[in-house]
Write a structure and sequence with these properties.
Layout lengths: L2 H18 L4 E5 L6 E4 L3 H24 L4 H14 L1 H10 L14 H23 L8 H30 L9 H22 L1 H7 L6 H11 L4 H19 L4 E7 L2 E8 L5 H4 L3 H8 L7 H4 L4 E3 L2 E4 L2 E7 L6 E8 L9 H51 L1 H4 L6 H4 L4 H10 L5 H4 L7 H6 L7 H15 L11 H14 L4 H7 L4 H12 L1
Helix pairs in contact: 2-3, 3-5, 4-5, 6-7, 10-14, 21-23
Length: 523
């Protein structure tokens, strides 16, 4: 229990002696191409400590290997044990440089030995890193391998190539008549750019070649992520469609509104739309949405809307409903500012408009389908995360971990549990503190997802609503009575989102008193 911190403390003491005194290392020795420091009076003590710690580490890894039962864990620990020898081997090439050779150059045959030793040590450290990177990681092994590959390619490999170019160019003659300093700058910048381009261009083929990420399911998900239509992508596409509409029809304004559960929602607009704040709240437009765009609907016929040549004439706009591919559900509304009293489009303009309407409707339909995919994925994330954590622990924990049932009480008993609840309430209407809350792992939230379309955010919000409702006393609500205080604080501050000052004023208390009672309410 105390060996690890003790070893760190002793190591820091030796580091301080190296930096501040001549006890561990002494004067600087200038050997051609191999300058080094002479050993100090207590260097033998440091060397003894170094080898003792190294032997102890190797012995501990060997003991862990002896305890392994399955072939998989034994093979993993064997590789780790062999790679662990990299630390003492890393010292060997430099021990060949004797302190007595201060007046002599290092023999030529020694350099290949040193270079080969460094390459072997670097390779072994890479193997050791590749094995130890999996310990404690909740991500699958393939994800860890890919991340390690990217790091090795972008940091050590790039740095080594840039350093090699720097050394070669700095020791060469002027290139193309340029001074060495100028050529060196161009060479280093060009090397960094080319290496980064090569890593980006050949990343996926190398991953498959090295079997880092060659699962067909992963490949399909990667292709899906590259083709997703985000909200910004949708708006940009609709703006392009609307701009083309305005150019083709010679009209100053065009807009697209999506039909949502709360009514029409403006998605994109091109040109002046001064009445945008009240445009979609108009009763006639609400009737269009409720009628599913059917011009023969009773809601449309009894309204003030007029249908001419397939367009719904509404105020200063001509409107066309946007339907899904089956033409049985209205997805949105496509409107253009009218350029005359009646639609007077030519055949060519109508053909262009029909094409643009199809593209706008397809974009809205794709976005709805992707939102359903996102909701399903979001519902699976808590279970996937829990399974990955369990898988990682089982890989390196073996039987004790697998035989231990998962305990939800560990989260409830967490000292930060009240803070988790407060953070989730702070972003009650949306935000990372709610959507990424650890409370998603609670079993009660997982069960609530079944009644909330597998949406964990809605499920957690419903649990918070239920918890706040439990604080509500019976009878008529009063703002200042003691029995209503806790419920009023939670409802006003988190559900209604009122400011602390306004809540304190309504409850007739100071802000400091409000914070104290809020802590009690959260508990």
């Amino acid at each position: 229990k105390f060996m690890t911190p003790t070893a760190y403390v002793i190591g820091l003491i030796f580091l301080g002696l190296v930096l501040l005194t001549n006890l561990v290392v002494d004067e600087f020795v200038r050997v051609p191409r191999a300058p080094h420091l002479k050993a100090g009076p207590i260097f033998v003590v440091f060397a003894l400590y170094y080898w003792l710690v190294t032997i102890a580490g190797i012995y501990n890894v060997w003991r862990a290997r002896q305890r392994c039962i399955t072939r998989t864990t034994r093979r993993r620990m064997t590789t780790t044990l062999l790679a662990f020898v990299a630390a003492p081997l890393g010292v060997f090439p430099y021990l060949l440089i004797s302190g007595d050779a201060a007046d002599h150059a290092v023999p030529f045959w020694l350099w290949p030995v040193i270079i080969l030793g460094n390459l072997v040590v670097g390779f072994m450290f890479g193997i050791l890193t590749a094995h130890l990177a999996y310990f404690g990681a909740t991500s699958p092994d393939r994800v860890v391998r890919v991340r390690l590959f990217k790091f090795m390619a972008r940091v050590p490999l790039t740095g080594s190539i840039v350093l090699l170019v720097y050394v070669l160019v700095s020791r060469s003659k002027p290139i193309l008549g340029m001074p060495t300093e100028t050529a060196l700058g161009f060479a280093v910048v060009a090397t960094v750019m080319l290496v980064e381009w090569a890593i980006h261009a050949y990343k996926r083929p190398l991953e498959r070649l090295l079997q880092l990420n060659n699962d067909p399911d992963v490949y399909r998900i990667q292709r899906l992520s590259e083709r997703l239509l985000t909200t910004n992508d949708l708006h940009q596409f609709l703006e392009s469609v609307l701009a083309a509409t305005c150019e083709a029809l010679r009209t100053p304004t065009a807009f697209v509104a999506a039909i949502t559960a709360d009514g029409p929602k403006l998605e994109s607009v091109v040109g002046p739309l001064t009445e945008s704040t009240s445009l979609l709240q108009n009763a006639d437009l609400q009737q269009i949405a409720q009628s599913n765009g059917n011009e023969h609907s009773q809601d449309v016929e009894t309204s003030n809307l007029e249908t001419v040549s397939g367009f719904i004439v509404w105020q200063d706009y001509w409107i066309r409903p946007l339907y899904n591919s089956s033409h049985d559900l209205m997805l949105g509304i496509f409107g253009v500012r009218k350029r005359s009293d009646q639609p007077d489009f030519s055949e060519q303009e109508e053909a262009i408009l029909d094409t643009l309407l199809i593209q706008a409707a397809a974009a809205l339909e794709d976005r709805i389908l992707q939102q359903e995919v996102f909701a399903a994925v979001e519902g699976l994330l808590p279970q996937i995360t829990a399974l990955q954590e369990r898988r990682s622990a089982a890989t390196f924990g073996g039987l004790p971990t697998l035989s231990t049932p998962p305990e939800e009480s560990s989260l409830v008993q967490d000292p930060e549990f009240n803070s988790m609840v407060r953070d989730a309430l702070t972003h009650y209407w949306g935000g990372p503190k709610l959507t990424q809350s650890p409370l998603m792992h609670l079993q009660i939230v997982q069960k609530a997802m079944e009644t909330h379309e597998n949406n964990p955010t809605r499920a957690l919000r419903s649990i918070l609503d239920r918890a706040i409702a439990l604080q509500k006393p019976q009878g008529e609500r009063k703002m200042t009575t003691a029995e209503w205080i806790l419920y009023n604080i939670l409802e006003l501050k988190f559900i209604q989102g009122q400011r602390v000052r306004d809540v304190a004023r309504r409850l007739a208390m100071s802000e400091s008193d409000l914070y104290r009672k809020q802590r009690v309410a959260l508990e």
